[in-house]
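#data-curation
PF: Archiving a pair of folding outputs for the training set. Convention for this channel: one message per protein, sequence first, structure tokens after, nothing in between. First:
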Amino acid sequence: MIDFILNNKYKNIKRYKEISQVLAKYGFSIMADKLHNKSFIKTHFLKKSNDISNKYNRAQRIRMALEELGPTFIKLGQILSTRYDILPEDIVDELSRLQDNVNEYPVEKAKKIFKKELNKDIDEVFSNFNETPIAAASIGQVYKGRLKDGRNVVIKIQRPNIRKIIFKDLNILFSIAKLVDEHFNKKNPVKYVDVVEEFSYLLKKELDYTYEAQNCENFREKFKDDDRIFIPKVYWEYTTKKILVTEMIHGVKLSDFKKLEDMAIDKSKIAHLGAQIFMEQIFIHGFFHGDPHPGNIFVINNNKIGFVDFGIVGYLDKETLSFIVTMLKAGSKKDATKIVEALEKMNAIPVETDEMNLKRELNVLLNYYYNVPFDKLNFSDALNDLLRISYRHNIKIPSQLVLLIKSVVTIEGVSKKLNPDFSLIQLSDELLIELKKQKFNFNRILSEGAEMSLDTLKDLKDLPRLLKQAFHRIEKNKLKITLKIEGFNELKREINIMTNKVSLSLMVSALVVGSSIVIQSKTGPTLLGMNAMGFIGFSFAGILGMILTISILMDILRYRK
């Protein structure tokens, strides 16, 4: 591992220097030392930590360090800002305060990137291009414009060299995650390398605007007949990995409360509408917006909203969706056993978890939230409490569920700002009742039955062929059965070690007894006044005995750990 880290370090030596300095500055010298284990590098690159450690607590210092390290680390922190299942509560709470403060880059650079990507000047494509960006994010900047045919559009242009910067930081993040897992996270089934792997996947997708454009098209297709929602059209002829041109939404951002009041918008109605559409994305389409913050939702009128920025989306397969529905039903019935069974079905509970204690904690949680009135109930708090229990019991939550929880927490927070009396749980209950009706709809049952029958017929059709292959292999003695016993190789190794130690003990005993007899014989050559062969035998027995004793002591220390 050290070789892996050193190889990466020498490729990105300048960035390693910056990260090590920041880590040392905020009191994480141990991590900085691990990152730079050469004394020369430590001497020349690492600053001594100042009194920041005394002024701020651990969580604050982590947040400040991430902000100073830049866009990649800030984005990672934002993803971790709901991960009560893998981080202590104080750190998660502090990470929710992370601010993505980025400076605008010059419009001339944006025009150069546009020209390089499309081989056209901005003036050739747009009759009007507003050079002042309407938004500046860590990956790109957004401008307003008008195409030659008069259509108003939004143009997103990626920051110069951002791909190179992010890939370099991801490389370093993997090194840091490996160090954390090796030195501070040995017992937790959730490994930070896996978290960084998932984060890397999401971030690389965000760097490709054609992926975002495709997500936008998918949403537009799914909601094409829904008058409650507007999804902008993508202009593919002007879209590349670094450029995205979409239809402009004529509405007001959900974050602009003053303009909403000027438009006489019914906030309660919008809160219900936005949350309803989002929950339908989950339960009906299994495909949801992964970042539904107020800046990505536009209000068009009292009955219609629009979504933008589809860089992060979540997909739910039938098994995960079934798991969510089971969890909600079990929660409404205060059935902790069902929740544990659902988690086991998802392979989320490690073997060492005390299930009785887990059920006890879940029962306390369910009884507490069951007795809270609907108007006072906060779905986000319930989900976060569930994640806290997951952290205490080392439960591994699937990544898509984590993204879903983050999105649900965001949408409930937005809805409660619009309407303090809003209840997401009540809305979920209404939707589950509707889904139950749909599930028992005659046409739906007929359709699913026909599909199941076709699958069964196909399986039956393949059965004779598969049986024939199996019998042929048995006849030719070519059928192999592999039996894998968990931990068998480890047990085999331990037995071999134990057997070798017993054999060594017998050898030492035999040498001691044999050497004693030879010395007593007082014949043959002498050494230091004793029979030479007896003396050599005793010496060899002593060396082997010391080796055996040291080995046994090391085993004792290892098992104590």
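PF: Second:
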Amino acid sequence: MFGGCLLLLIVLGTGIGPWERPARGDAVPAPYSSRLETYVLSDALGSLPAGATVGVYWVTPAPGWYAYGHEPGPTGMPTTLQAMLEPGEKYLQVFYPPGIVIEDSLEPGVMVEAFKEATPLFVALPGEEVLQERDVLHIHLRMLLCSDRSCWPIDLREEHEVADLLERTRHASGSEPDWTEQLSAAIPGATTTPFVRPGAASGLVTEPTLVEFAPDRLEPVSFQPGLEVRGLGKALLLALLGGLILNLTPCVLPVVSLKLRGLIPDASSGDLESQRKAFRDHNQLFALGILTFFMILAFLLSLTGMVWGQIFQSPTTVIVLATLLLALSLSLFGVFNLPVIDLKMGRKGETSLSNEGQAYFTGMLATLLATPCSGPFLGGVLAWTLIQPPLVVAGVFFCVGLGMAAPYFVVSFFPNLVRFLPRPGNWTLYLEKALGFLLLATCIYLLTFLPGEFLFPVLILFWATGMASWIWGGWTNLSHSALRRWSIRAGALVLVLAAGGWALTAKPVSSDWELFSAELYVQALGADRMLVEFTAEWCPNCKFLEKTVLTPGNLAPFQDKYGLRLVKVDLTHDSPDGMALLRGLGSQSIPLVAIFDRGESAERPVILRDLFTLGQLEQALEKAFHQR
């Protein structure tokens, strides 16, 4: 619906009258003001009888800003107000006046109801006798303020002393026409659930049900139960098969150059027997690098409880990988020699590792780049595996690694295949350049994982990496002393590190969806129908789903049909409650979508793992809401 809601750093210079208060907790005041007044009605107004006590909560957007009405229309977050008296947790009925119809500044052509001027929101207070028995009135305002350039989400909580309210209570009469007509036209809203979209049942709730955040009580229902894993034998078999398929995934295809390197004999390998040995050793060590990476990954996940794929937590890992691959491509173009992974054929730099070390670390790098695409093949296996004891985790991950490494182990036992490979020559120089361009394409592919805010800083980092590579390879040679060579190279590394540190200071824009919190989940569970998406910036499959299936255009009809509420659990950074909910749904891998119904079936959500189509999402919604 919108891009991210941006904080606009302005100082609100409008006058603030008695009992007005700007938004709290912000370093800069939000572009609105609010105040609470209390009145006793002389005449009946709307659904309130004469003599009723009403709280008038004024919300005044700053010039050029507006808030969406309680029933805004096709876009926008509804303005909601929750009022509760303490002690006793007595929730009060709130009434909302109609807004004015305007064109949404962020959605041209879409008309919405909005509050542009000072707008009263009405709270039905009990009589003076009841009020005197209470101590505090709690107010919770939630709305979205927008201008023609940006939006500012408001989530404000206030406390008002009841004794102070009683002192300021006045009688409403004909001299108060500024809000009495609006009260006559006001409609009641939800009471205990302030974030529910309009259309939910409303009414005075005097004893709200308290629900604790207990995701372990959930009983998730898989949309495709046949793919769920319930035993070790099935997990090992599927892990072996999934690892084998990983060699064909899009994430592995861009690094095919890392594998072709093992199939092309070096001109420096000597006679046929030496070439056979080099061919066998390279493939075996490449496979050993794959197995090593998976065993390290098994240890990290079982020890830390991270989500599968969380090695890509935050954009940092993606940026480091893209920069490394850029350096690899520059080395293939002859700009410089990398000391750890050098893909050039038979021409290593003076600081490069041996051929055996190159093969081993290249296998680990190829596996690291393959992990983002493992979800569609391993999601069900890993969801079961990562809640098992460490030995089971290690066994399953070993099978995944064995499946991915199997082709290279098998090929290594047939070293005579080297006879059918083309003889080394000048053509390998052209192949190196072609592989260099393929690695550059991989850099572009990795950039698609990053939020837009990182694009410009990362391009500057790439420029600095190119400059540093030229300094490393062009400003030093073996005729220089070791001190001079490494002083120049240290300067090149400092240039890359400085540019990288600056690139990582960029901050992603927050999501348009409601961001998950334990409080939001507790309030909505059983009361609202929810579609909960688990995602992260380091999860390419999650981003693919958001661009193809979970788009605003696709979800809008489901929201209208089912009254669906969209909640996003962002696992880009540490989120203990989000992880607890993910584990409560029987998983530790993402992407995952959970669909919650209202009522007693709320604790039996329907889940969709990994990649799915729009048609499958529609079927899952029908299954979750028992509609055929």
